[in-house]
């Protein structure tokens, strides 16, 4: 796999690389349980975001219910202290349900990319959980970082601008995840390193899918809005952050 080729557009899209101080903190062995836990929850949140977009913007409620049902066991385990599901069995079931449909071409593009994204993020969730189990790391609930909130608070409050902004935020979150996996991989044990590098290709595609959808929804050119969120994102990454997380800023 050609990592530099996958990463080049991601690095160009982001306004700054991950600060060296974050990598220094993240590579400490004692940080691993927190990092993996936060990463696992982020995978589920990525799936939830995609699912919410489909439910909000696609009229086929029955199809959207099927997507909702996919997420339930993951959400119960992660947010409500539910039992740990049999992820292998869940994974086999996914994709067999009826998918939402629409006659609207951009709506269908949204469904297609979001359904694929949900499938992939749930698979990643399961993979991270397996890495945790293999290392004897129990799942303990943690608070979310300021990162996603910091971007979403800039989202405009009337449609279709809300959708456009949320899609741009999605693009930045995916791109940063991709960049951080690559930055962290060389400092991890061989199995984790292999796993993190295996995620680069899909996360790089996710960011491009979000960006393409944003441009498709918008009537006008979105370059300046993309730049705006790029600056907001870079400020969250480049400023001191008291909480250490997968997407946190400069550790204090
Ligand atoms: Fe993912
Ligand atoms: Fe992703």
From TrEMBL:
It comes from the Bacteria. It comes from Yokenella regensburgei. Pfam families: MiaE. SUPFAM superfamilies: Ferritin-like. GO terms for biological process: tRNA modification. InterPro entries: Ferritin-like, Ferritin-like_SF, tRNA-Hydrxlase_MiaE. This is tRNA-(MS[2]IO[6]A)-hydroxylase (MiaE). GO terms for molecular function: tRNA 2-(methylsulfanyl)-N(6)-isopentenyladenosine(37) hydroxylase activity.
């Amino acid at each position: 796999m050609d990592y530099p080729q996958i990463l080049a557009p991601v690095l160009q899209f982001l306004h700054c690389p991950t600060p060296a101080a974050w990598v220094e903190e993240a590579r400490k062995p004692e940080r691993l349980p927190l990092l993996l836990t936060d990463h696992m929850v982020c995978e589920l949140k990525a799936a939830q975001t995609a699912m919410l977009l489909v439910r909000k913007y696609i009229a086929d409620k029955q199809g959207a219910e099927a997507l909702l049902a996919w997420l339930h066991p993951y959400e119960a385990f992660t947010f409500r202290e539910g039992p740990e599901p049999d992820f292998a069995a869940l994974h086999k079931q996914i994709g067999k349900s009826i998918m939402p449909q629409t006659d609207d071409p951009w709506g269908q593009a949204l469904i297609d990319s979001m359904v694929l994204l949900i499938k992939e993020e749930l698979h990643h969730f399961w993979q991270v959980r397996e890495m945790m189990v293999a290392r004897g790391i129990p799942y303990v609930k943690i608070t979310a970082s300021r990162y996603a909130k910091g971007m979403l608070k800039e989202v405009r409050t009337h449609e279709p601008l809300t959708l456009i902004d949320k899609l741009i935020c999605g693009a930045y979150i995916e791109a940063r995840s991709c960049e951080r996996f690559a930055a962290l991989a060389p400092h991890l044990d061989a199995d984790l390193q292999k796993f993190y590098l295996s995620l680069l290709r899909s996360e790089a595609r996710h960011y491009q899918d979000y960006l393409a959808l944003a441009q498709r929804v918008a009537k006008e050119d979105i370059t300046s809005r993309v730049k705006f969120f790029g600056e907001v994102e870079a400020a969250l990454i480049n400023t001191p952050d008291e909480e250490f997380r997968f997407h946190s800023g400069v550790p204090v």
